[in-house]
Amino acid sequence: MKPKVVAISYGQLTDILIEMKKLYESVVELQIIDALLEEALNTARRLEQREEVEVFVTGNSNARILVNNLETPIVAIKAGASTVAEKVYEAAKTYGEPIAVMSFRNRMPALQDLLELLKVKAEEFVFTDSHSAEECIRTLQSRGFKAVVGAGQVCRIAQKYNFPSVFRYPRETILEALDTAAKLAVSRWYDKLKNKQLKVILDNIQNGVIATDRSGMINLFNASAEKILGIEKEAAVGRQITDILPGEKYREAQAIKRPELNCVERLNQKELVCNYIPIVEKDQVEGMVVTFNNLKDVQESEYEIRRKYRNKGFIARATLNDIIGESPAIKQAKIFAERFAKSEGTVLITGESGTGKELFAQGIHLASKRAGGPFVPINCAALPENLLESELFGYEEGAFTGAKKGGKAGLFELAHRGTLFLDEIGEISLNLQTRLLRALQEREIMRVGGSRVIPVDVRVIAATNRNLKQAIKEGRMREDFYYRINVLNLRVPPLRERPEDIDLLAHHLMLKIFNRMELSGRSQRVVGRYLQMVLPNLKKYSWPGNVRELENFLERFIAVVLGEERLTPNEVVGLTEKLLSAEGDLLSLPPKATDLEKERERILKVLQETGGKKKVAAERLGISRVTLWRKLKDFKGS
């Protein structure tokens, strides 16, 4: 048996949850029920009464009703204002404007500010039940709205009236809620197991155990205590402990607030060995635990229960649809990735650092028939050869100094019936290439220090930013190994080859950073205005660090301009150049010699006209003072 998570959903949310269900089969039992509002509450109550659920996960509308009527934890799938704004932005691009947003019971704080920031014409409407939602959608059609953004109920009603709709919950948000629910369910499940174990332990250990509250009233009396003292539990619970055991040592332990151990007590011609252990909280005795046994049966024993529950849930989270970009280059890469997903051949993903090779690997895995299996990633450049070998293939007990007792399964075994992602494949040694070649050819591995062949059903996706053919020429890669991993080749384009995606990526990443930083709507609006000023400049930059560098730049950009509300466009552009040049790259290529002479004449002329005032000259030239200073310095050097 496994912990049980019940997802109560409706419409499109149900469809997405069904798709994701297989991702959690190894961790929890995920039951999906398509229900709404009152029906959802009645269903949830029945499950709770039968104790058939650890955690509920549901959309925000259902959650608001369930949370006030149930004791079982509820994880709500929520889409924040920035997420909904992003969906509105997508809807406007697809269907035109204006766009309607439908929210259950309450409006979303900061949503309107974000929509103004994105310059999208949209309006938010609130509904309270299915009837009001349906009336609202009919009204939207008559008022000329092009589409509606909402949850499952809204989308299903819109479909009924052939009205375009966009589902407000992105897959990432749903996955985050499911991850939270699964972790909470596992935690509650193990807490219940621990409580049951404790009861079994208390009822089966040879020592008698009595627990009292701060007043000395008994609230726990185990089976051994019944047997040793000849008193039934029902007759003991609720009585003062001094009615059953001598009170001297009990009161002494209570007074000194420290345990009194191995005290020999005489009771009704019986000699008992007792331990009085006060429960002290903030220097106050809140209760007492007393353990005891017959003197003749006393055996010193120590009970320590340590259980570690480790969930090795290797899960891919990014689908190919989650990869941002509308450029021909990225679309072509996604098309090939979808085709490769249908194959079982080894995939070699090539591309510069920061282009998102692991995202493509996860997307291929989730689009393949192995999506229900594990996705196991490892960076081959991060470990030395001997450690990487033992991580990949595992090891037997005694294989080397420090090897765990019983040995350890390797990543090939953990990836059985799933995908093994070998990042930085170009960094592995020739010796390890030989072992990997055999594993890929024979579909079997042997642990380090072992003699047993273990069959594995694993698909391998490898990735590199190196020129592997050059590595073959230099003797750093086996040619047969190269052709074994390069069955299906997928090249991920660098960001400089798809500048048309920078606008979309920048807005997506900016909203993600806003969420992470929990910025106010006003701050988001100011930062967004500054970003609009420099987007043309960002499209001219070469981005050697690709999407990762773009995200890092945006993080720095937001941190620097945050709180600044009166920067001029020239100052923002100059700041951007400074932030980018801090990476060691120029915003654009230097002008040719002839252009340089013309630019020099023009700058010197403007400086002469402004009386040498660099600030005024920079504003007239449309550049920052930093850029003007740098150009003057370059002119002197030339």
Features:
alpha/beta, Rossmann fold, Beta-Lactamase, 6 domains, 5-stranded parallel beta sheet, 20 strands
Classify the fold: give the CATH topology of the largest domain: Rossmann fold
Helical fraction equals 40-55%
What would you call the shape? globular
**CATH uppermost class of the largest domain:** Alpha Beta
Counting DSSP E segments of at least 2 residues, the number of strands comes to: 20
Radius of gyration: 33 Å
Structural class: alpha/beta
Percent range for β-strand residues: 15-25%
Give the CATH architecture of the largest domain. Answer: 3-Layer(aba) Sandwich
Major beta-sheet overview: 5 strands, antiparallel
The CATH homologous superfamily of the largest domain is called P-loop containing nucleotide triphosphate hydrolases
Overall average residue pLDDT: 85
Distance between the termini: 77 Å
> Please, how many domains?
6
- Low-confidence runs (pLDDT<50, min 5 residues)? 299-312, 583-594
What spatial order of strands do you see in the largest sheet? 10-9-13-12-11
Q: How many helix segments?
A: 25
